[in-house]
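Task: complex structure prediction.
Instruction: return structure tokens for all chains below.
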Amino acid sequence: MLTITDLHAEIDGKPILNGLSLTVRAGEVHAIMGPNGAGKSTLAYVLGGRPGYEVTQGRVAFAGQNLLDLEPHERAAAGLFLGFQYPVEIPGVSNVQFLREALNAQRRSRGEEPLSGGEFLRLAREKAALLNLDMEMLKRHVNVGFSGGEKKRAEMVQMGILDPRFAILDETDSGLDIDALRVVGDGINAIMRAPDKGVLLITHYQRLLDYVRPDYVHILSGGRIVKTGAADLAVRLEAEGYDGVMAEAAA
Amino acid sequence: MTESVILPTRRDEAWRYSDTDAIAGIDLGRFEHWEDVDVPAGETLRRCVIIADADGPNDATELRRLRVRVGDGARCELFVVVSSGRLGRVEVVALLGDGAHLELGGVTIGGRDTTREIVSRVAHEKPNGTSNQVVRAVHWGRGTGNFLGRIDVVSGAQKTDAAQSFRGLILERGASVNAVPQLEIFADDVKCAHGATVGQLDEQARFYMAARGLPPEVARRLLVQAFVADAFVALDNENERERLMRVVLDKLDRHL
Ligand SMILES: Nc1ncnc2c1ncn2[C@@H]1O[C@H](COP(=O)(O)OP(=O)(O)O)[C@@H](O)[C@H]1O
Ligand SMILES: [Mg+2]
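Output:
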């Protein structure tokens, strides 16, 4: 459902992605691992359409559309969800207001009826409970005063409410303690494990993958996929480090 | 009698960033008119002053001048929105008694080739008075927003606590905002906090909102609403708060 072909992208004229290709079929979870600075977040932002991230070459097909032709909010309405490595604080705007407007904007663009205030709150309460997040947190301003772990759980509550077809999750596991990691892992499975959905899980560590088993693991380095394997590749990475595994890939 | 009126020029401090051409043709009786308001000792008065379009863009000059005398221990709350006129200007002079409080929350908003401004002079003439001014300016096109806020603390007015906060939001290149705080303090035991900043919409917040499916104009509306809300937090009446916010958001929806 997501096909990336020979993607090149740059920031401020500096090439970051250098010919990245990747296909995720419906029902699959792919993990992307790689050292700091490899270009993982850049890939996520390029797919999300962040201004300043310029695609210089390549194509991205998503659910039958040319993803790169769409504005960021149109990508979301098409079913793409981007879980941020650093969720953004928005003082003065409550989570409830933000998410209700976002969900209804998406629904409207798909020709669906907007949810009423009551319907929305019921949905939000259900998803907050799934992620073990106090509903009171959703009445507060978006991410303002949230701890690192709360921000990541709130991202997953947002994902639950918006119910996307495809999720790109950028280091959703960082900043989580071991209990929260399990809650978030279970949440990802509950929301995104379905035959018609797909997930791109960007992570530094193997530990999230104990909860969300990937079908494929890719190693990203220097702006390209340098190695692809099954779930056990992540275990080897943890044991041998990037240098060891990548030296073998280069050989 | 009207011949004796000398219209201000931009050399006058309080008209420094104004559109003085816009007052050239104005009815002089209206120009000279000040409304006097008295808040007796111990009482509270709230007043909302709105300069808004009746229907469609308005190229007239709209002036509102208010002189309030806040008695000992009294409280005066003024909430102002200036969203209309080629020149829209609200002037407030407040004279504060012992332990009196003045609250001023104001918003200027607009685009085209307009000037919208709030000009205040808060005079702490007795000890123990407090004042709090929060002004937000949102402009686009070639619109200008000004806040000139003067605070006078006379030599006997000890324990005065006067605060002033201004923030400007520029939505399009070409718009401008100006803040001129002016503090004349002749007492030593006083607190006077003031701050002024100017910026644009937070790009990170805009992308985050887009990534959740909000079209740019909806995201902008939410961010402007959050920005402006500071000016109305002290307004302890939800209906009134919503009425003022509606004037602000209408302007944004219909004219940006
Ligand atoms: N805004 C930016 N401006 C310039 N360079 C950037 C910017 N963001 C990221 N980079 C560079 O792009 C490269 C990849 O960064 P990033 O995608 O964040 O890596 P990762 O998420 O894998 O740690 C790094 O060399 C980084 O310095
Ligand atoms: Mg990153």
